[in-house]
Amino acid sequence: MKNWITNVLVNKIFMSRKFIYGLTGLVVPYLITKFGWDTSTAEQVWQTCLVLILGQGIADINKK
């Protein structure tokens, strides 16, 4: 039972939009700077992901 609850919670976390936006907000700017592209692009991606996380949080609050 405990293992099932853990699996359900972990799956909920990994499938949540906020988690995906956060992971994308970390990975994509890292890759952009790793490939030597413009750092302003990495900043814009990071800021966009932060806004998406904030918007999803507000949407989740209003959903309940």
Protein described:
This protein is flat. The protein has one domain. The longest helix has 25 residues, at 39-63. It is 88% helix and 0% strand. The chain has helices spanning 2-14, 17-34, 39-63. The chain has 64 residues and is an all-alpha fold.
How many runs of DSSP E, i.e. beta strands? 0
Low-pLDDT parts are none
* Helix and strand sequence: HHH
- Indicate the mean pLDDT: 84
Strand content: under 5%
The shape is flat
Q: How many helices in DSSP terms?
A: 3
Question: What gap, in angstroms, lies between the N and C termini?
Answer: 27 Å
- Sheet with the most strands? none
Gyration radius (Cα, Å) is 15 Å
The structural domain count equals: 1
Helix content: over 70%
Structural class: mainly alpha
Q: How would the blueprint of this fold be written?
A:
Blueprint: H1 2-14, H2 17-34, H3 39-63
Key traits:
64 residues, mainly alpha, flat
Task: Offer a quick outline of the entry.
The chain is mostly helical. It is built from 3 helices and no strands. The two termini are 27 Å apart.
